[in-house]
Design a protein that fits this description.
The protein is mainly beta. It folds into 2 domains: 43 residues; 204 residues, Exo-inulinase, domain 1 (Jelly Rolls). It contains 1 helix and 15 strands. Strands 1, 3, 4, 6, 9, 12, 13 and 15 form an 8-stranded antiparallel sheet that branches. The longest helix is centred in the first third of the chain and has 28 residues. The N and C termini lie far apart (60 Å). Bound molecules: magnesium ion (MG). Magnesium ion (MG) binds next to strand 7 and strand 8. Magnesium ion binds next to strand 7 and strand 8.
């Protein structure tokens, strides 16, 4: 009898442990979802809440979905401001629905709105008659968060690297001087190119200490070139990366100071993820 009793008690104990573990696993898989029921049934692991929001995709690949914030659609720069003087409008040039860097203007431009984590789509084109070499050939950049004036922030490089070489951690789609792209997916100058970027902003505690590094995924012309890359801090021309605490910040585009012809942009939209 004692043996039977102990075996039964042990079985119940194991079942409780297994169920508790399953509940823990479920909570991990579906944060915020309250587990109910017997995990030995298929219904127990099928959830009907939360319900994902309906997002209507764009008509064509690259078109903005229904919940995107349109940052540039060919008409105006109402969503942008000058970095050197945020009280002034962005002074880049719009013609025929295309935005072109103003190399004689006030420099970099940034969004008026600030963002934490997001999905960004941006299209850019090198001039068909681009000249220069290395870093001095159609240089621009997307700063995923502008931490200050000038080129302060986290830059994904824009450059003409179609038959143009430079240091690989500074070529097209590099996380500048931190992350060499997984591929060179450049199109010829004169052809439109796309970046689809998933940005996860760094997190800091109340004391300003880093708790989670920034991460970025970049798809260049449909090719994965940065795969959830973990940044070591802001991207810098000279010196090593470092983190300074911050929250939501603008997205910034670079007016690089090289003498080559200015590059152009179109169809820019963003989907905040928090
Ligand atoms: Mg650049």
């Amino acid at each position: 009898m004692n043996r039977k009793f102990y075996l039964t008690a042990a079985s119940i104990f194991c079942l409780v442990i297994v169920n508790a573990q399953t509940e823990a696993d479920t909570a991990t898989m579906y944060p915020g979802v309250q587990y109910h029921g017997d995990t030995t049934t298929h219904e127990a692991t099928e959830f009907y809440r939360p319900v994902p929001p309906i997002v209507t995709p764009g008509k064509n690949c690259g078109d903005a979905p229904s919940d995107a914030i349109i940052l540039f659609d060919g008409k105006n720069l109402n969503q942008w401001e000058s970095v050197s003087d945020p009280s002034k409008p962005a002074d880049w040039i719009i013609a025929n629905g295309v935005l072109t860097v103003n190399k004689k203007g006030s420099g970099n431009i940034q969004t008026k709105e600030k963002f934490m984590d997001y999905q960004l789509h941006i299209e850019w084109k090198e001039p068909v008659d681009i000249d220069g070499s290395g870093q001095l050939r159609g240089n621009s950049g997307v700063f995923l968060a502008s931490t200050g004036p000038g080129d302060d922030g986290y830059e994904v490089q824009i450059l003409d690297c179609y038959h143009n070489t430079t240091y690989t951690n500074g070529q097209t789609a590099a996380v500048y001087k931190q992350g060499i792209p997984l591929a060179n997916a450049c199109k010829k100058p004169g052809e439109w190119q796309t970046y689809d970027i998933i940005w996860t902003a760094p997190r800091f505690d109340a004391s300003g200490h880093l708790t989670d590094s920034a991460r970025v995924t970049v798809i260049h012309n449909g090719v994965l070139v940065q795969n959830n890359f973990k940044l070591r801090g802001v991207t810098r021309y000279i010196g090593l990366p470092y983190y300074m605490p911050h929250g939501a910040l603008p997205i910034k585009l670079q007016a690089h100071g090289d003498a080559s012809k200015p590059i152009s942009f179109r169809n820019i939209w963003v989907r905040p993820l928090n």
